[in-house]
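#data-curation
PF: Archiving a pair of folding outputs for the training set. Convention for this channel: one message per protein, sequence first, structure tokens after, nothing in between. First:
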Amino acid sequence: MKTRTTAPAAARRRALALTATLSALSLTACGVLGASGDDGADARAKDYDITVGLLLPDRDTARFEKFDYPLIKERIASETDRRGKVVYANAGGSTEKQSEQFRRMVTDRVDVILVDAVDARAVAPDVRRAKEAGIPVIAYDRLAEGPIDAYVSHDNELVGQVQGRALVNALGEKAETSKVVMMHGEPADPNTKLFKKGAMGELDGNVDIAASFDTRKWLPEVAAANMRKAIKKVGAGNVAAVYSANDGMAGAVIQELQDAGVTELPPVTGQDADLAAVRRIVDGTQYMSVYKSFLLEATGAADMAVAKVQERAIQFDALARDVIDSGSQKDIPAMLVPVVALTPENIEDTVIADGVYTVREICAPAYEDDCAKIGLTPWP
């Protein structure tokens, strides 16, 4: 039975369940996923000899190049006895370039396409083109319009809820009279709408939203320019908190506050657990980020792609336990991975425990003293 929502209270259980599902499916890679009873070695080799097209949107978001692509590439290889391969392209933030890359993959007849769309609406014609060519398309990280076969991401409304709740908690009894600046993401990114919905559900009526901005293509320089406008409107010393939808923008926001002479920084949110953001959380300049398990998302997407190509409906349905609607399609099979609020208290139990960063990477020389204060000590 599929569900439409992922309740915050169930996030930990969902993470454990998803990990168990992925582990179980991994065990079947040498059996069920690669064979169907009377298949011989030649049939299994054919099943494994697949090509996955991977389209990622930009290089400004550190996680895409450092984590998502390598994780998906390795998982596809491990699930196909090292015979499967990934054809990768990054759009560099350009809708037109991504469309060219998408069309090339359709022309080259890849077996399945994983796409993280630069623009959810603009990608729809290319999704239809792939569908007409008999190539399944799975939307990755961001929901895309058009006849997609599945969607793999995090519970993005929950991301906004976690961020908004963190600010309300940080402001405490003064929340209702506190002036908050909101720095949303790219309007064409469907995730932005979900982040905003979740955050507004926590902030609207509980704080004074003094200024609100959308950020073209999630660019930090655009966020910086908008923050300068907010400071001019509200006053640098009157900004009680900043909702920043991701870490790249959070860094720009913090820099503008510092340049304006703010010495006691207000709480600033983020998302993606970029290394620079984790270090800012360690030294206290950024209040929190949202950690989204790249491993679970990337591994789940790779497993779903393999199951789709190999027409393993049971495995595919076990991964896609949720459903979601896009602007052009209803009841899309979906995998929604839960998220965690990243704070100084749980850095060791999240990004370090999951192998995203080592203590040494986080605790560079400039951060040694701050790391020691929260119990992160990479030195003997």
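PF: Second:
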Amino acid sequence: MRAPAMEEWLQGRADVRARRGLVRNAVPAEPLLDLASNDYLGLSRDPRVVAAACEALKRHGAGARASRVVTGTLPVHVHLEEQLCRLTGAQSALAFSSGYTANLGVLTALGGPGTLLVLDAHVHASVLDAARLSRSPVVTVPHGDTAAVRTALAERNQPRAVVVVESLYSVLGDAACLTALAAACADHDAWLLVDEAHGIGVAGGGRGAVHAAGLAGARHVVLTVTLSKALGAQGGAVLGPAVLREHLVNTARSFIFDTALAPASAAAAATAAAIVLAEPELAAALHRNAQLLAELCMIELSPGAVQSVPMASAGAAAAAAASLRSHGVLVGCFRPPSVPDGISRLRLAASAGLSPGGIARAGALVRRAVEGTLTHATTVHAFGERTLS
């Protein structure tokens, strides 16, 4: 008997993924040397962060129980937004349930036929989805091309425009030229939206790339952040002028119609933000480890936590990642559809908690994996250290 049409189609797509080396698996974490997670500062397991989450859990319960505009706004959300403003220097902040919904909320609330969105070609999938839903005209410019941004802004017919970039990009690991982009936006009466997902806790002593560029509090610069990377928690936020926050509270659908961020996550993120501000040595340790990792892997140092190793193909990247895992090293593997054809790569995430010995052993294994000389191990070889979750 023939399988139903949907089941047949799904099996066909699975076969294509297998042939192309694009199969992904969600598997339980093993005790590996972790060069894949986004917990850049190790704060997800910091006792102070965990204690704050536990206290909020006991005080407020497991969930916020409603949207922020109904009864879901709790004192812990207000405290989180205050801490994020202290950390980044922004005038106001609005917490969302994730970084994804933060990007979705701000771009759909600012978008429409009268707003041109100018997107860097390497922006995150959440930005692309938000642009589609915004009903805005969209121009995508080549990655890192400030001149193309200026041209798009100068030639626009719309009264408003928002340029969207990431401060630190998660695939290539490179940085946006924020000062030049902010100047272009100021010259053409546009706003600059900077996704600081990989910048908060990492750039500018942990205060972010926007703060490091001297743009903190600028009237035409907006930040989106995730609380699930360097801050080790869950959630997201939009930071910018107070007039934007008021607009989002009243118009951002992913804020109005979504249950509020869980209080435990909000409390954890607030405490993590305070730690990052008070202890810039955490970001300094991260950068020392990133430099060592890049040197040992013989790749160009990226300005953030992510160190990018180009691979010849999606299949080669997947094989190298699997070999490394079998030897106790967990790395990210970026391949289509996460990245365009031709730029598959291993993604190595440095962190403040890695030891020099662990990095040295991992670096040697990565070099062998890239060369294709690392064969699968029969068992996972533990590194004798627990780094990140």
